[in-house]
Specification:
Blueprint lengths: L2 E4 L5 E4 L14 E2 L19 E4 L4 E4 H4 L8 H12 L10
Antiparallel strand pairs: 1-2, 3-4, 4-5
The chain binds zinc ion.
Zinc ion binds next to loops.
Length: about 100
């Protein structure tokens, strides 16, 4: 499954999942029913409504970074945001 956004000219771009941690494109394990219900508003996960569990690096990736929607439009930005805000939180949802 893919997600998409419209640019200024109305062109729809399909965004494929790319894991900002390891670069994997496997998004078979994803979910919406979010585990981050009782988070502080300051927690970056509190803004997320979707996540992908990357089977390669075993991390839970926020949808806004994996599919690069909202303000995060490039893989480089997604990677930076991941490293800055999410990487050290370890709110992982994977059953290993
Ligand atoms: Zn990964």
């Amino acid at each position: 499954m893919t997600t998409y956004f419209k640019d200024d000219k109305g062109t729809i771009h399909f965004q494929l999942f790319i894991c900002p941690e390891c670069g994997s494109k496997n998004d078979k394990i994803r979910g919406y029913e979010f585990f981050a219900k009782d988070l502080e508003p300051s927690d970056p996960w509190s803004q997320e409504f979707e996540f992908i569990n990357c089977p390669k690096c075993i991390r839970s990736i926020p949808g806004s970074l994996g599919y690069r929607y909202g303000k995060t439009k490039t893989y480089d930005k997604a990677k930076k945001k991941w490293n800055d805000k999410f990487k050290n939180l370890f709110r992982e949802y994977l059953v290993k």
